[in-house]
Amino acid sequence: MARNLRIATVIGARPQFIKYAPISSVLQMKGIKDILVHTGQHYDYNMSKVFFDELKIREPEYHLDAGSGSHGAQTGMILERLEKVLLKEKPDVVCVYGDTNTTLAGGLAAAKLHIPLVHIEAGLRSFNKRMPEEINRVVADHISTLLMCPSKTAINNLLNEGFKNVLHGGEFPSPEEISFVKQPDPDHPVAINTGDLMYDVLSLSLKNPRVANSGILKNHGLHAGSYGLMTLHRAENTDNILRFEYLLEFANGLAKELPILFPIHPRTNNRYPDLRKRLHKNIIPLEPLGYFDLLHILSHATIALTDSGGMQKEAFWLKVPCITLRNETEWVETLESGWNILQKDYKGTHATNDRFDKIYGDARASERIVSAVTYALS
Ligand code: UD1
User: Where are the alpha helices (DSSP H) in 90-196?
Assistant: First the structure.
């Protein structure tokens, strides 16, 4: 029965390609072919294709070529083009990931056509509505039929917003428990703690020799444990000049002690064309990196500085101390564990401890997600 289920997957931004990879492998293993739609939100080779190549994701059935634009224009373009695809393909279910404009548009397109929506990475909250991501994820959650949560915190956030149907008390469900989820509907959505998909993809990728053999450190004359790694691209940082200047000064200060590799996101690059001239000489600007190179340099870094959600967790899993360049984080467990600290709380030292719980799961999120979708919606 599961084989006949028509799943449409809507992805379009860098972190979504990474999260989709392990799901795509499990679908393949189960002989299920989904309809893959790339919205085109990210389109440069090093923001998109490199992840398809490295993580062996097949060519999408549809490219919507939405490209850049204001939030309204980008979201609207995806919504309009995706609706046509969904009307033609008539999938039984649409899966969206994370919190980007692609997630919002994909969710709206599905919900308006009364197609059950699965939100993967549901329930996260920064409690900061000035972040476009917060708006996207709150809306996506509230129009979803199945909510796949990466952590207990995410489950609790949903409970606090009135969601009632939480499988297995918010603990990881067994396959038997998952098989009891039958035909949920958007008026009675079901939330499941699946664990974090990024742990699946990280665990698998660390076994890939291309991570260990990446030549990127050698190319820059750096050695393991002798540098930091920074990424900075969130709109709340890049679009507020004073905030951006402040963070730049902070990073330039740290660079006096330690070289810092800085792969620059196109958003940041576009906003600050003179950025390279304003970096301390120990900050080494790079083009955006593929996943394997990024894992290589992150795993050997002394410290990570980032406003990316994904990198906060990757640093945690790789036991690299992280300073989060934001005033809050959705990944509060990383703060509680001591491996992560918000920049505003950083006082020149970083007290890490050995607490390392499996708070984000056991690297089997993709199996749980695919089981839940196939049982619930077949
Ligand atoms: C998006 C997500 C963010 C996620 C990030 C990961 C939203 C609201 N935000 O932000 O949650 O953390 O992706 O990267 O969806 N650009 C290029 N080449 C590309 C892609 C983008 O030059 O391949 C430029 C665009 O012209 C635009 C800027 O980068 O000016 C921002 O792109 P956009 O897709 O709006 O959002 P991100 O900042 O990437």
Answer: 101-112, 132-142, 152-160, 175-179
